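Usage

Read records sequentially. Each one opens with the input sequence:
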Amino acid sequence: MMRFGAGVTGRRPLRRGLLLGLPAAWGAVAITYKLGCPLAQQTGLGARIVTSAVFFAVGTGLVLHVRQVLLTELKQVRRVAGAAQAALLRPLPPRVDGLAVAAAQRSAEQGAFVGGDLYDVISTEHGVRVVMGDVRGHGLAAIGTVAAVLGSFREAVHDERDLTGVLRRLDRALARHLREKARVAQSLGDPDLAVAEEFVTVLLLEIRRDGDVRALNCGHPWPHLLRGGRVVPLSVTEPLPPLGLFPLPADLVPLPGGSLLPGDSLFLHTDGVEDARDTHGRFFPLTAALADAVRDGPEPPRTVLGAVHARLMRHSGGAPADDIAMLVLRNERGATVPCPGRPVGHRAHH
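and closes with the structure output:
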């Protein structure tokens, strides 16, 4: 172990020396030729052509060397970004406690792997718990807030018996993160780190073994239920304000979201999906896209996700203006017994 570490450390100065030495060598060649070669002192046409060719070759070598250095550094940055993405928005398994799962996300910021959207699906003793959220802003600036919210969710879903406790944990974690961010901004005198009006929309779902669904929604788009070729909103209730703007109400209670029957799917998304515009300024018709994806009956989550994503990219010209995230959950629990008398997507009240 120690020998391996010493070898790596020894190679780094050597690599830096090569990166600096090659341009110096090219420059030395050009200077040596200009000062020491008799041909370079002549003013005839032939001599000038040869001199120009030498300096052109030197310049080309320098450009190619710089290009190679930049490509190497870019590959390294992409590897680091990919590792960060895997740790932050870790790939979801294809099945979670009898639910088939598929997810996709895309950052609106050029070159960024992770944006301001977040999601996760975790099996717990209380049921499968799901989070979908959207940090104000997008791209790299939102990553710290995404990490704070997701980290809190991954702990709270196992510790808290109901969704109310989970949401309150997320709210406290966000408040701590914003206070620390404000402290750093003040100490650095950096206005770009200001946290005024920073907030996060959050949707929490709990899907129990019998298919019963509970939900808490803070400013996020409601999911769509896909059943038998139909697309139905999971709820028509007005959501709570996003986290970070106002304190959570004292009488916070999870809302009933009906039953997710065998073969049913839920489509969750961030507002970047519906807000995507085409060249004429028209919003993306998400409901129509979902209806087309399930027109012939229930489809696997990856098929639904692929169809909607492809249509979204065509609609937005391949470059949505905001981060987007989509998540599809399908109930494949063959032994699920639906709760009698529980309508799907029925109206609930605070």
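Summary fields computed downstream for this record:
- The chain has a mean pLDDT of 80.
- Residues 92-331 form a domain with the Phosphatase 2c; domain 1 fold (CATH 3.60.40.10).
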